[in-house]
Amino acid sequence: MPAPKRPKANAKRPVGPEFGGQLGFGGSPSRGRGRERFLRGHLRTIVLEIVKTKPRHGYDVIKAIAEEFHGFYSPSAGSVYPILRELEEQGFVASSSEGGKTVYTITKDGAREIKTNEDKFADMRDRLRDRFRELGRYREIMREMADMTHFVFGRLRENGKSDTATIKELRVAMANFKSEVEEIMARAGGRR
What we know:
- This protein has helices at residues 29-53, 58-68, 77-89, 108-116, 118-137, 139-159, 164-190; strands at 56-57, 93-98, 101-106.
- It is mainly α.
- It folds into 2 domains: 17-133, Winged helix-like DNA-binding domain superfamily/Winged helix DNA-binding domain (Arc Repressor Mutant, subunit A), CATH 1.10.10; 141-190.
- A 3-stranded antiparallel β-sheet has the order 1-3-2.
- A hairpin with a 2-residue loop joins β2 and β3.
- The longest helix has 27 residues, at 164-190.
- It is elongated.
- The N and C termini lie far apart (59 Å).
């Protein structure tokens, strides 16, 4: 009996906070990449400003950023920790060990860096707020989509292996749903 096929490393998989990923602006991994690039360019500044509010350990910085962006963006540890180390090397933050965790505190040089670049920071904040303002309106519908995804995967798991006809019907239902969404959005575009 041949070994079961393993999914390819780059195979599409469900995306969203409930699956360990993040939804992009358009709700798909590829569309989220633009957001990731946009924010990555500002992440160093965002981290410095977060640490300015109070001393924090790395995971706390990640949580604070996620809260700042209302759950629509949460940087990875692989992005935040190197930035914290870089900021420390530049003398903008200092670290200490508390309860087995490395805690970062802003230094005078870090506060001066924020003050010196106040206009740039304000511009960045305004651009990010503008970019994320509209997403707040879509939070509920995104949550409902995630619930629907869980429901479908749960039913597929309960039923075990689905036959070809069932899979085909599900694909038709998804295509119909997509068409309906496109029609609604086209009508909404005309109402602007």
